[in-house]
Amino acid sequence: MSVLVTGASGYLGGAVATALVARGDEVRTLQRRPSRVPGAQDHLGSIEDPALVSRALEGADTVVHLAAKVSLAGQTRDFARVNVDGTRALLAAAKSSGVTRFVQVSSPSVAHAGAALTGVGAEPASPDHARGDYARTKARGELLALAADDDRLRVVAIRPHLVWGPGDPQLVTRIVARARAGRLPLIDGGTALIDSTYIDNAVTAIIAGADRADVAHGRAFVVTNGEPRPVGELIAGMCRAAGVAPPSWSVPGWLARGAGTVVERVWAVRPGADEPPMTRFLAEQLSTAHWFDLRETRAALDWSPAVSLDEGFERLAASFA
Fold first, then answer.
1. Which of 9, 41, 85, 108 is the most exposed place for a label (fewest CB within 10 A)?
2. Any idea which architecture 2-161+198-224+292-305 has in CATH?
C-alpha cells in the first residue's frame, strides 16, 4: 500500500506506521510533531490544513486516520474541530485524491451510554448518548466516515479498547504514577469485568482493517484481547510490572461518579496542567463492565489477537527492567 497515517506521533499511530514500514508499505504521516518513525515521510501540520492534506495524500491509496483530540477534559469546540471537522475534511480530500481505502480508528466509547456492555459487538455509535466530549465527537466522526463509504472509497471503522503496552505514555504511565503517589483508588473494589488490548494486537487489527476493506467496508469492529479481567486485576498487573504496589483502597461507585461530576465543573473553569484526577466518564468506565464479542471482528478482518494479556504483562515488566 501507499498509505497516509494521521496521528503517527501518538503511541498507537506511531506503532501502526512502524509496522506498515516494516512490512514494506510506502508510508507517509501527518501530524503536528515529528513521528520519529524510521522510513516514513512526515508531513507536519494539522488535518485542518487543506493544502497540507492534499500534499500528504498525493499518490496514496489508503488512509489510516488516528489523529484525534483525546482527553478527559477540554473545550467542546476543540474536540469537535479535530474529531469531527478534521475527519470530515480528510474524508473529502481522500475522495478527491482517489484514495480507495479509509480506516477510521474509533473507540468503543462511541456506543457507551454509561451502563454495562457485556458480550456485545460494535453497537451503533450514538453522539446523543455517548459520555463526554471525546466520545461524543468520536461518535460523530465515525458516523461521518461510515456515511462516506461507497464503491470508490471503502471505509472501515476499527474500535480498539484500552490500548496499553511498553512505552505507553497514557494509560500505563498515569496508572503507575498515581499508584506510586498513593492517589489511585479502586472503584467498587475493582470488580468490574473489562476488556483491554495489548498494543501489538491493536496494530495488527487496524492494518487488517485496511487489508480487508474490500470485504469489510461499511462496518465498525470492536478490537480487544478477548480476555476480560476485573479492572483491579488489570491495574495490579500494570503496577507490578513497574515495581509499584497496586492500589489497596476503594471508593463506592456513586461517590466516584459524583466527585467526577464536581471535578469536571471545576476543570471547566480552572483547568489543571494534567488530566483531571477523576471525571464522571472515567468513574463509569472503572465501575461498569465492558467486554465484547469478537466473533464478527475475527471473521470479517481474518484477524485474531496474537499476544495474550499474560505475555503482554511480561513484556511490560521487561520494559521497566
1. 41
2. 3-Layer(aba) Sandwich (3.40)
Instruction: Please confirm, yes or no, whether 11 is among the known catalytic residues.
Output: no
Q: Which of 207, 92, 121, 106 is nearest to 163 (CA)?
A: 106
Contact 113, 287 (CB under 8 A): no
Domain ranges of the chain: 2-161+198-224+292-305
pLDDT at 153 over 90: yes
d(CA 28, CA 25): 10
Are residues 63 and 3 in contact, defined by beta-carbon separation less than 8 angstroms?
A: yes
Please identify which of the residues 11, 79, 102, 134 carries the catalytic annotation.
134
DSSP label at 60? Answer: -
Stated pTM of the model: 0.94
Sign of CA dihedral 86, 90, 91, 93: positive
- Over the stretch 240-273, which tens digit does the pLDDT of each residue have? 999 999 998 898 887 877 877 787 777 777 766 6
